[in-house]
Amino acid sequence: MQTKWRYTIPWHIVFLLFITTLLFPILFAIGSSFRPLEEAYNDVLNFIPWNPTLENYRIFFGSMDVIQITFNTFLIASCVTLFKVCTSFLAAYAFVFLKFKGKDVLYFLFIATIFIPFSVTMIPNYLVISDIGLSDHLVGVMLPQLADAIGIFLLHQSMRTIPMSLIEVARLDNLSHRRIMKDIVLPLVKPAVTSTSIWFFILSWNEYVWPVLMLKSVEQYTLPLALQMYMSSEGGTHFTVAMAVAVVTMIIPLLLYLTFQKYIIGTFTSSGIK
Amino acid sequence: MHVSKWEGRRSYEQWKAYGLLFPSLIIFALFMIWPFFYTIYLSFFDWNMVAPTKTFVGFQNYVDVLTDPITYKVLRNTLFYIVLLLAMNLVVPYIFAFVLDLVLHRWKGFYKGAIFLPSVISLVVGSILFMWLLNPVSGPVAIVLGAFGITMPVWSKLDGWVIVGLSLITSWKVFGYNFIVLYAAVNGISREVIEAAKLDGVPLWRIFVQIVLPLSGATGIYVLIITIVQGLQYVFTPIKVLTQGGPYYGSANLIYQAYHEAFVLYRTGHSAALSILTMFIFFILLWLEFKFVERGIHYAN
């Protein structure tokens, strides 16, 4: 027992220090966002708000329509998530349970899309979406994101654990694929569907690269764009206000993660690439 | 008759499968595969994205890109990003995953949860937080270093340092996901082999190198590949928000440079040629993925 502790204590210290470093920026942002600007500016290090104020949030909410921007972010993230999970579920079901010609080629093609960097697709997508008049429109942001090979991959890994014989028996009983999906497969892979959904929602909530190309007017902005704009237009001097915007941007993903932490970590742990 | 019924059912199943794949396929075709070929097409034309006509120039864009010294600077930067991202997001989390699984016995759930947490936060948020934390004059890190008599470099204005800074910011987000995936792989290795080695008094670093690395190798390669493919795209955000590729292309990587050519300089052909070169590198990684990783997925269980 003694020797065991001698081995583990240094590593516990390493882990605790590492986690403190990782989480410090978040605590720093939350703390600073409640401090008066001059006080925070003169004493950056002491980030605990001894004289808490909501002034920074008031400035942010006064400078732009935060409700609208939050709603835009929420709407894009919800639609993208719903579509992506549905398209991924159907495709994963076909890949796992159905026999068809060209399965290997199609699977390769789907996985290959992960390897196409956005620099390759950005110009044509920008042109097409502008041509159909959807640039500077939330739908234009959503369209290219409605399917995702990562989702197909994660659900594929989860569905593979279902015994094939279960599906074969259901087919012999003349159950339709729709019924098999709804009544057999979906209940069995529900944890994976839940965590994939939350993961997609968080990814889309945080998405920056594509929206920044698409969205031009402030009333269409999403939170990450608002945060970036505030920084550049204010020249970076209103640092406590920027921290307030950062807190508003990260609060939803953080709450979702803290609520569904076990699901999310569980799915990535059992996605089973061995 | 029996056979034909079976045949009929098989072809019905086939069409059903194509039907289920159709929604994903149409999105991929419209927004991934078609754009890929259109970008190849654009790489042979001189265009500025607004002019009504494109001028065919053959391989001139590729010649321009390959003779431009900035391209080589960007390539060197990209390579430096890859090395740093791999060190911070493959080597370190691999060791951490090994230690958490085989050395530590308490607080595993807490450690996993806390280490993953930054992965759910926007990189724009990360960029802005670190811009303040790593401010070389008034930031907390500079103040603490100053107390030890160390002057912090003005990292965002210096070649090399700027890439270190931006890689650190990106790693803050990427680390947790990679850590969890690697932890799962290490955790999936049969306990008997490791326990036997431990009983024989094999030192931990040898257990790591000779048992854990080979037995979790497919995941290791998977994490290596996604760290390069997604890492280089993730870095785009801090580059765009904090340095815009500066100082003088000192922080631009291939992806950012393609964006810069297209949406700042309006040289569509150059951007497309650069993207196609990037694609070549990524295709080598795709080949690796199918050679070493997907095979494991199909036949492991």
Automatic annotation (TrEMBL), chain A:
UniProt keywords, alphabetically: Cell membrane, Membrane, Transmembrane, Transmembrane helix, Transport
Domain ABC transmembrane type-1: 70-260
Annotated GO CC locations: plasma membrane
One BP term from GO: transmembrane transport
Cellular localisation: Cell membrane
Segments traversing the membrane: 12-34, 74-98, 105-126, 138-155, 184-205, 239-260
Family (UniProt): Belongs to the binding-protein-dependent transport system permease family.
Topology with respect to the bilayer: Multi-pass membrane protein
Organism of this sequence: Savagea serpentis
Official protein name in the record: Carbohydrate ABC transporter permease
Keyword Nucleotide-binding in record: no
InterPro entries per UniProt: MetI-like, MetI-like_sf
TrEMBL record, chain B:
GO biological process, one term: transmembrane transport
GO cellular component entries: plasma membrane
Entry keyword Aminoacyl-tRNA synthetase: no
Transmembrane segments: 20-44, 79-103, 115-134, 161-186, 207-229, 269-288
Localisation per UniProt entry: Cell membrane
Membrane topology: Multi-pass membrane protein
Record protein name field: Sugar ABC transporter permease
Family indicated by similarity: Belongs to the binding-protein-dependent transport system permease family.
Domain of life: Bacteria
Residues covered by the ABC transmembrane type-1 domain: 75-289
Keywords: Cell membrane, Membrane, Transmembrane, Transmembrane helix, Transport
Cited PROSITE patterns: ABC_TM1 (PS50928)
UniProt organism field: Savagea serpentis
Record-linked InterPro entries: ABC_transporter_permease, MetI-like, MetI-like_sf
Keyword Membrane: yes
